């Protein structure tokens, strides 16, 4: 098996074989060990008002400073966490850390909500959701401080249980945002009867605006739909001034992207947007 043949060599091929042979138990263990050793941390990316660049809210994005592999982006380990079940502990870590950070934001007079990402794997039962509420209570943080970002797939008709859990989150006062909006290939009919406060239009609808006519038409339509439904709309992945100008012209009020700010440690957010005291 891959484990035995790979031992003692360092070639990528063997490393890959080892990786494939890794059981869920081992992957789960690796993430749990990383959590125990404080290898995970949060960066916050500003969502800003397109008119003046002022801060609207922040999104928490998890990173893993791995002792062997170096700094790992979420794409490299969230799927592993989901497969192995460690997403549960990882998700609780993220929520716990944001609860520790919110008082620091408030102390610096930074008022907006903090957005936290959730994958459908985290919505497995009522106990998971109750555990999140318990984390907030433990830190005495009001649910109104949070937006939970989910993807369209969680609102598919066959996900009734998850929809019930989402409704209970909404009733607590936590806002719900649809992340990567437009990429889910799902019907938008859920917007009629589901309490969504924010649509985050995926970067892939923003990348070639305004040069690409077709993409520009799609983006414009998405903005108008959100505005007609009185749902906040955020354009994700905005990198160019020409994109900012276009969004301003079409009254897309909120922007998240490297043009204004990259994800950064909380201290950098406070230094840039907070009030010195
Ligand atoms: P997302 O929720 O859509 O987050 C936005 C991603 O786009 C972030 O990548 C951010 O760094 C990136 N981004 C923002 N503006 C720009 C831009 O102008 N240009 C480019 N090229 N990229 C930009 P990141 O931090 O690598 O996160 C990737 C994804 O991982 C997130 O996408 C989210 O789906 C997931 N993720 C991150 N943190 C968590 C978490 O705590 N829990 C869960 N379940 N998923 C998470
Ligand atoms: Mg997100
Ligand atoms: Mg997104
Ligand atoms: Mg995403």
UniProtKB/TrEMBL annotation:
<feature type="domain" description="EAL">
    <location>
        <begin position="24"/>
        <end position="277"/>
    </location>
</feature>
<protein>
    <submittedName>
        <fullName>Bifunctional diguanylate cyclase/phosphodiesterase</fullName>
    </submittedName>
</protein>
């Amino acid at each position: 098996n891959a484990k035995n043949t790979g031992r003692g060599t360092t070639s990528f091929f063997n490393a890959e074989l080892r990786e494939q042979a890794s059981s869920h138990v081992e992957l789960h263990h690796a993430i749990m060990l990383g959590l125990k050793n404080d290898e995970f941390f949060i960066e916050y990316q500003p969502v800003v008002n397109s008119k003046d660049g002022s801060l609207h809210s922040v999104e928490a994005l998890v990173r893993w400073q791995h002792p062997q592999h170096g700094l790992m982006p979420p794409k490299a380990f969230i799927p592993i966490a989901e497969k192995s079940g460690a997403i549960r502990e990882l998700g609780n870590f993220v929520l716990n850390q944001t609860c520790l950070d919110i008082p620091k934001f408030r102390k610096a007079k930074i008022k907006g909500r903090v957005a936290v990402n959730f994958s459908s794997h985290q919505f497995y039962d009522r106990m998971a959701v109750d555990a999140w509420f318990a984390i907030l209570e433990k830190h005495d943080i009001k649910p109104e401080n949070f937006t939970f970002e989910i993807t369209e797939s969680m609102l598919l008709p066959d996900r009734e249980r998850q929809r019930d859990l989402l409704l209970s989150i909404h009733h607590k006062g936590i806002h719900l945002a649809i992340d990567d909006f437009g990429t889910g290939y799902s019907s938008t009919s859920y917007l009629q009867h589901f309490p969504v406060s924010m649509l985050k239009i995926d970067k892939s609808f923003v990348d070639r605006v305004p040069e690409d006519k077709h993409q520009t038409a799609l983006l414009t339509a998405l903005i108008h739909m959100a505005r007609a439904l009185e749902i906040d709309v955020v354009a994700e992945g905005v990198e160019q001034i020409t994109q900012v100008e276009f969004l301003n012209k079409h009254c897309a009020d909120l922007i998240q992207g490297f043009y204004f700010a990259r994800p950064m440690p909380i201290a950098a957010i406070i230094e840039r947007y907070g009030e010195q005291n």
